[in-house]
Amino acid sequence: MKTRAYAITAEAIEAEKNRVGGDLSQVDVANVIALDDLELRDPGPRDVHLKILAASGEHNVDHAALADTINITESRGGKIYPGNSALGEVVGIGSEVTKFEVGDIVLTHCNGDPDPFGFPLRIWGYDMPDSIGWYAKDAVVEDWQLVKAPLDCGLDLWQMAALPLRAPTAYHLWRRALGIYRVKVTREQQSILNVLSFGGGVGELFLMNAKAEGHNAFFCSGSPARREALEKLGIVGIDQKAFNRFADKGDVKAFSGEVKKLTDGVGMHIVCDMLRGPVWPAGFAASARQGVNVSAGWQLSQVIEYNSTVASVKQLTIDHTHYETLIGIEAATEMYGSVYKPTIHDEVYAFEDLPRAFEEMHQNTQTGIPILRIADDMPASVKHLIP
Ligand SMILES: NC(=O)c1ccc[n+]([C@@H]2O[C@H](COP(=O)([O-])OP(=O)(O)OC[C@H]3O[C@@H](n4cnc5c(N)ncnc54)[C@H](OP(=O)(O)O)[C@@H]3O)[C@@H](O)[C@H]2O)c1
Predict the structure, then answer these.
(1) Which of 92, 188, 200, 207 has the smallest count of CB within 10 Å of its CB?
(2) CATH superfamily of 168-320
(3) 367 neighbors 347 (Cβ within 8 angstroms)
(4) What are the DSSP calls for 247-282, one per residue?
């Protein structure tokens, strides 16, 4: 079965790197991702054939295009088909599929290879060998990779499409961070916590979990539009640019002082930092005693440094997560609409405009999570969900 899908090739990465003379800050991501003809495998008995309706732009495309963490395209043989968050319509099922029927609207998740405890060894559409991502018109996936979309959750179609990757990531970060904090300080001892996250879709959802459970939530972002959206949910905004995005130690000190003011001198019990780089020392300094700093991202750097003595004396815990288990993904999906109310970027991008969407993500000019409309014709079951 033939389809149209976006691909990133090692040659395109190399050509763009040469064009900008190796200066990664000048890379135009739109030059690296391109539409391709793709032959999908013949569906097997456990397979589901999906027509992709909408997808969200995920930051790992940026990492793949820049090859700034690892050159994932090269390590996967020179070409990848990215895209690990989508919403689709079931248009065909294999003989052994019982969980889904033709016509169902489903979400994909990106746990591509669960370990014995359910945690992903590999991510679908990224480092999972032979995985074909979902920035494509059609897809063939096994049924365990799909979750029914909660069409009556109160979210519109674009909001739902924003969540399949980010919501399970946020949910996992949240339940881990809270669980670790509660090993140290019980609910009997302290009920309400101060919770901080920095910018980005995952961080926003993380704070929605905290707020929904009655905690004090703080969002430190450089984007006024994204802060404003969270302030409507009662989450306090802190302008990251007022602290020069933590360019030097003085900025971190000033931020830490502001956090002390906002929290009656206590600091943040839980910090979510998906960015690292200069954000890391700010989150570390803002921590309360017994604090937990949790991360599943490395957008600004892969390596962190900290003073172990300070961390010991403050009883701090630094935790790293990756992505949810299959059961956890189902649990995260239950919170669509009630807890997770994602902020969507102003423009819903057409399929043809996907490369521009990724360049705008790279430029950090989007006012929310970018959504890609993949299908022109939408099934009747979702037409009322399109704003
Ligand atoms: N392990 C996983 O499963 C997983 C899942 C999802 C994401 N991630 C990773 O987590 C990171 C964030 O992803 P996301 O989806 O939450 O983000 P996103 O919605 O794509 O937003 C990116 C955010 O990065 C911030 N940013 C950009 N440049 C910055 C800078 N120079 N200094 C400080 N902040 C800057 C912006 O914050 P402002 O609002 O302050 O401008 C922006 O909101 C990415 O690296 C992604 O690959 C990992």
Answers:
(1) 188
(2) Medium-chain alcohol dehydrogenases, catalytic domain (3.90.180.10)
(3) no
(4) -SHHHHHHHHHHHHHHTTT--EEEEE-SS-TTHHHH
| Helix, coil or strand: residue 288 | strand
DSSP 296: S
| Interatomic CA distance for residues 191 and 189, integer angstroms | 7
pLDDT tens digits, one per residue of 215-253: 999 999 999 999 999 999 999 999 999 999 999 999 999
What CATH class does 2-165+325-333+340-383 carry?
Answer: alpha beta
Considering only CA atoms, which of 282, 266, 285 is closest in space to residue 193? 266
Q: Which two tokens stand for residue 258?
A: 């502001």
Nearest CA-CA partner of 375 in 2, 55, 49? 55
329 in contact with ligand 1, CB cutoff 6 A = no
Is the sign of the CA dihedral 340, 346, 349, 355 positive or negative? Answer: negative
Q: Which residues contact 229 (CB under 8 A, 6 or more apart)?
A: 204, 343, 368
Which of 202, 280, 294 to mutate to test ligand 1, by most ligand atoms within 8 A of the CB atom?
202
Greatest pairwise CA separation for the chain in angstroms: 63
Ligand 1 atom nearest to CA at 222: 40
CA distance 139 to 218: 39
This prediction has a pTM of 0.97
